[in-house]
Structure formats: structure tokens, C-alpha cells
Amino acid sequence: MTHNGFGRRERKEDPRFLRGRGRFVDDITLPGMLYGAVLRSPQAHARIVSIDVTAAQAHPKVVAVLTGQTMRDPWMTTLSADTQAVLATDKVRFQGQEVAFVVAEDRYSARDALELIDVEYEPLPAVIDARHALDAGAPLIRDDKPGQHDNRIFDWETGDAQRTEDVFRTADVALTQDILYPRVHPAPLETCGVVADFDEVTGKLTVWATTQAPHAHRVLYAGLTGLPEHKIRIVAPDIGGGFGNKVPIYPGYVCAVAASMSIGRPVKWVEDRSENLMSTSFARDFHMRAEIAATREGTILAVRVNVLADHGAFNGTAQPLKFPAGFFGVFTGSYDLRAAYCKVTGVYTNKAPGGVAYSCSFRVTEAVYAIERMVDILAAELDIDPAELRMRNLLRPEQFPYTCQTGWVYDSGDYPRTLSLALDLAGYDKLRAEQATQRSATATMRSATVLTGIGVSFFTEAVGAGPRHQMDILGLGMADGAELRVHPTGTAVLRISVQSQGQGHETTFAQIVAHELGISPDDVEVVHGDTDQTPFGLGTYGSRSTPVSGAATALVARKVRDRAKIVAAAMLEVSPEDLEWEPGRWFVRGDPEAGRTIAEIAMAAHSSLQLPDGIEGHLDATTVYNPPNLTYPCGAYICVVDVDTGTGKVTVRRFIAVDDCGVRINPTIVEGQIHGGLADGIGMALMEVIAFDPEGNCLGGSFMDYLLPTSMECPSWELGETVTPSPHHPFGAKGIGESATVGSPPAVVNAVLDALKPFGIRHADMPLTPAQVWRAIQNRPLRSDQAIQ
Amino acid sequence: MRVTVTVNGTEYTRDVEPRLLLIHFLRDELGLTGSHWGCDTSNCGTCVVWLSGKPVKSCTVLTPMADGRAVRTVEDLARNGALDPVQEGFLHCHGLQCGFCTPGMLMTGRWLLDHNPDPSEQEIRAAISGQVCRCTGYENIVRSIRWAADHDS
Q1: Facing B43 at nearest CB: one of A19, A24, A704
Q2: pTM for the whole thing?
């Protein structure tokens, strides 16, 4: 029996999760294991006068207390080549920063002992509002860094400033809008954690961690510990969601490793929810001034964006080093522009470090939000329907591959077809007609009412990082390896460098091998997440598993197929050139009966059969895939909301999403990922924000304050698809993991502001909570980070 | 203090600190790691188990409160090797991705169908509204529970 491989099928990993038999980090218990807990700063910015751990050390269950003073090196390198304190020595720089680490015999005693540590702080003025980070006289946050005299991290620009200015100067219409993409948090349901186990006899360190990048982490741990890299094994077991939150290395991990190495026993550390929300990698916090230029008839000419990026107290983002603002350069969106320019300034503030996370595709989220809000603002200004305005300006299929004004080469797409399908699925014209009727009926009403809003967004994603001549993380190229072995009886083991945080790699990667070799996906075991068991690669984030590692998998399977051809030729006593492939077997051209299946060939390759010269035997291969370009998924989203003008409450009535992610391996899994991202968009647009008070106290430190969408806020999603294969990917896939999170927030916000159109409101920042909507109706919306204060 | 709790039909007697949360008793004392610890504030529901036949968030139940009572966890759903229809529903309808919220969702789903064998979509949504999933956008969880309603024997 032969198999196509691709298509809907149940996931191989599900039976263990359904029975409560998953193995997450906190499920791991080792003999003699100790528990760690982190003491965190209550201050946003303060000098540490003294730390007294005497009482904590006297606790009967406490084994050790680590402080910055006693650590081998209290600083570590971040994935952006900055430094970050593992445990604070000189100052604390954000509320929630790590100050001490207690190791005790049990979980509760470790937490108890934190209360016994006495830290004296001398509070310092704090920089909380990024807009004042570069003020003359602003407190210097990173006085630990030689040569750092202000709070600037970087200035980065792209596009042609002069050309863009020229277009703006002569354009009929030029609009400017300040847009804040507020600080939000990926908040995977499993918080971050680690079990570190150093074996003093073998000198080997094993680290089970919530990591999306185990191989990159191994390199970092080699530097941090001084251990040779082959004596370090990183394991990402089952991971309860990542969304970018689990890409960096966190101080808690490093403390657990240091404790295990000094004590000689395994040490577990798992943060609680408040620690996760207050100290680990947040997302966005992009203060954007966006401008759009167009003709009076509605031809978009140019876009310009000036960005202030709040990275928090340490530059802890994980992104390609040459791209300090990530892939924000694709803010040109899906439109054929004459010019574009942006400038991004990154700054330190006294807030938790991060910025690149929450399925953002290295800041494409912010880019799409900026352009899609501006297109809607332009549509309102010109009194053109927002769908119509987009349709007029979308790139045409014949323009691909398309080099945008900032140099990104979009690989493929049929944007008008994708948007048309979304409009059809939504019944867009009918919705607009209903809305017009409603507006005329309510125009004379003076009391509160419910108004319908229809929001459109069209996005172009840039995923699958990336070409190694352009992109690296800390000097590590973003190529990924794959190894495939076919056993004598024809079943296979695939080892990949990326791993799953819920995406279903054990199923989809088996399907890729099945597709290429024509064997059943059930006969392919996928090994992932263990650096001792898998080839090197940079991990799962930026929607890169399928575009990069999926490509590696297809190519390694093709290597095996080519080798199988030579063996089959020997078996059939013909020349390899005489063989033809059909899924699962090689056969003699013109004589289909004379053929050999992969299983037969595998057995022969392991047998005493005399193999041709140059063929070593067995049926296995390895490869490394260096992507020639990013892949560019796209999508058209339409959101329909009902806004209660009396309470400000927004109800999402319908959400229509048409995605084009190229060829789909397992459509069920693709759709599931889209569903999740759409819920993210509703969360960010309507309820999620990590805000701070002026002293730097985090106001989003628990799920009581950081609100996530539930089943009641989410509608039943309506999906559609178009397929334009990526021309450079081996089987035409593009990646889907982040598309919906990227594309949906502007659709929701555009819908709410469309509902409020009768009030003449141009923009209001996310999250559009009832209070924020109500204020917008009063024509005094607040910046989102102020809105909940 | 000494507590006796019946978990999945087996009686366990243990000396515990009075403050020990039920989720930690199940996970750390009994090694039943199917239920998860997600938020501490009763918001996320990854820790949902049954206590005396009702779903509770075990991160906000003290172990002594379960003394003399019966607890049922996800590990008890499959019987004689066969998955419960709710588990089958999640498998067929792709009701899980990372699997972290799944045990709590399964326990609530099973309880709902025991008390309302033919729930509407809105009733299913209301039943799981005290629990958070970050992966699925809820759509396939709702479908999974509805599938189970159609296949419950």
C-alpha cells in the first residue's frame, strides 16, 4: 500500500495527552531532586544596599541560597548579544527582577525561605514611559555597561527616506496617526521551568527545560557553565505552549543549573503565573507614528513609520542580529507602493525585558497592524469602502516574486483572489447593506444602542528564518538539519532539529516523510527536542518549523529515495536510469510489475546483496537546509462586531479568515493553529495589556488582571483557503503558526472603529475594553497603557 | 495532619501540611501528573478535577478539604484501556494542541455530559468558560465535546 502522506489525520501525540500521560517539565521527578525559588525585586529601579540570607540559610529544609555575590558569573549573554543580570548585584532594574535563588528540599520550603531574605533597597527614579527614556536627565538604567551614556539600545532604519519624503510632499493626501501596540504577554498555559541535573562523576549536565530552541540554548549554557558542549544535553520535553515566550534563557534556568552543579543534586525550578507575566518575555510595546500618502482617487503611494520600541531593562529579545527591529521592514504590507521608510529606536526602560514574542513573526505583527490601521484611516478619509480600497492597491499575481520598497522579496501570492474569497464568505455587500440600514435607523436615536462594525485586514507574513547569509542568532546561522533512517523492515525514524510546543510535529513531519517515500505516516517515528538525539538547528519560533525543518525533512527523504533507487536497480539488475518512481516503490519503466517497495529495498540495503560501488549499505541520510528566502504567507480577515454604545462592550459576532499558507500538510492541524491565533487577536484587540503605574508596579501580574479570551468571547470561526505554493520550498509550504495572531488584531480594531464611525472617531488604541470604547465615544480615548489605570 | 482521600477509586492516607494544595497533593504526593498547575488564581482551569463528583479547581482547594472525600482525575477517564467518548472526541476533532489545558477540559466535558447529555453549543461554551486554552481558540474543544455527546453510550 502506498501513501500520499498529506491530508487530514489524527495526531500521533494525542493519546498520551488525553490520558494525562504527557511529560511536561514539572512532571519530571528525579531521585534526590531539590526545588528552587526566586526572590524578586519589589522595586522597579533601586540600588541594592545589602542582601542578608543568614536566616534563609538557617531554615532546616534549605540546602543553599544563591545571590549575585556568590555566583560564578552573575551576568549572562542574551540572544540579542546584550547582557542580563542572572541575579542582581548592583541594582534592580525592573519589578520582578531576580535577586536571590533558594534551593530547598521541597517546593513549599523554598518559597517559605524567600520570606527570610532581607534585602535593603535604595529606590531610584525609574523610567516607565518609553517616550521619556531619552529625555535629557533621564535616569541611566544600564550604568553597568561601559560606554552606555543614555537609555538608547539601537537606531535602525530601512527604506529610502528622501524618496519617501518626495512622494509625501507631492501627494494629494497625507495622513499621520500615533498608534501604540501595547505591551502584551504570550502567557502559555504552562509557565517556564527547568530541571537541571549535573552528574559529578560523568561531568555531564542534563537540562530539561521549557525551551523552543534547545540547540541554541546548549551553546549558551556552554558559555555560561564553562562545560564543554558535548557534556551538555538539553531536552525540551512536552511543552505546554510557547508562542515565543520560551525562546530566551531565563535567570531561573541558569540558577537551577548553577545550583545543581554546586550541590551535585538535581534542581527543579518552575515559576508561578505571576513570575511568568511579570518577568519573562513580553511582546510588542511599539510606539508608532505612522503616515500614509495617497492620491485623492485612492492609490496608496507611500508609507512612513517612526517607532519607539520599549525593550525593557535588558535587551533580551531573540531575533536575527542584523534585524534589531525584527522583520518590521515588511510594514509596506500587501500593497504596491512607490516609496517607504521607517526608523526604529530601541530603548531601555525599568520594565521586564523582551519585546519579540507572542507569535509575532519577529515584529511582523506590529508592521501589519500599522499598515492595516492606516489603510482603514485612509479609507475613512477618502470615503472609500475599506475592502475596495485594499482591492485597488493589492499586489497583482503577475508581480511575484515582488521586491518591496524595503527590499524584501515576496515569493508568491494571489492577493485579490484571497480577499475576494473572504468577502464572498462574509457576504460582505449584504453586511454593508444591513449596516447602512441600521445606521439610518439609529441616526436619530439619542439613547444608547448596539452598532454593527465590519473590519477588514489583509496581511503579508514573512516567516521561515532564514537565509544564513542574512540571518543568525548570536552568530548561529538559521539553517536546520534532519536525519532519516529506514530500518530493514521499512519503518523509519526521523530526527529533526525543531520541536513541538503543541504544533503536532510528530504527526506532520511523519506525513512529510510519508509523502516523499510513499510509506505510512504510522511507520515513521519523529524524534525531536533532545540535543543528544537530534541534529543541530535553531528551534521552533517565527513559524519556521515547516518552512525550514520541513524542507530539510523533504530533502533528506529525497536523498533516501535516490539511494533506494540505486539499490533497487541492483536488485532488479537494471540501470538506475531505467527506473521510475511512484509513491512507495521504484519500478522498471515500461514494466510496472518489475518493481521494489521501500521496505523491500531497505531489507536488501541491510542484507548481503552485492551493492554497487560507492553505496555503503543501509538506507539513511542526513541533510542541512539553508533556506534561500523567507516564505510569505498571506491572508484576508473580516471581523463583524456589535458594539453597545451605552456600555462600550464589544461582542465579536463573526470572524471570517481566509489564509494562504501554501501547500497544507495536515489541513486539520493548520486550521487548529489558525483558530488559536484568531483567539489571540480578539484577546489583544479587546482585553490583554501589561500596564504599569508611574512607579513601575506591574498591573498585569496575574490572570485576574491580565485577561485572556475564553470560549465566551470567541465566535465560531469561519475559515477559507487559497493555495499559492512557495516556489522555493521543496513541497510549496509556507508556514502558518503565527499568521492569525498577526492578521487578526487589525481586523477586530478596524471593526470596532467602523462601528463607531457615526461618532467621527479615527483611532483608539488597544485593548478596546468597554471603558476604552466608552471613552472613545466621548471622543477622548486614552493610550492603552493608561487606559486601565 | 493526616488525611485520607480516595483518588480514582484508591484510598490514600498521607501526613500533609494543612496548607498543601490539592493539585500538589495529586501531582507531588501521588505522582498523578495529568492535572496541571497553571495560574494559582482559579482562572485557567488546567487543574480541574472532580471533588465529590463536581469539577473544582484543585489549585485553590486545600488537601484537608478533600479529607474523607473522593477525587477523580483525568487518569481515571479511560476504562479498561478504552478512551472515554470525551477523550475520543478530542482525538477525532483535534480538540488539543499542546495538551496542557486538556485534562481540565476533559473533566469538565465529562461532567457536563453526565448532567446534560445533549448540550447546545452555547451550553458547552458556558461549561468551559472558566477554563483557558491558548492554542485552539475553543472551536475544536466545543466540537469535541459535542462529538462525545453524539457518541456517548
Answers
A1: A704
A2: 0.97
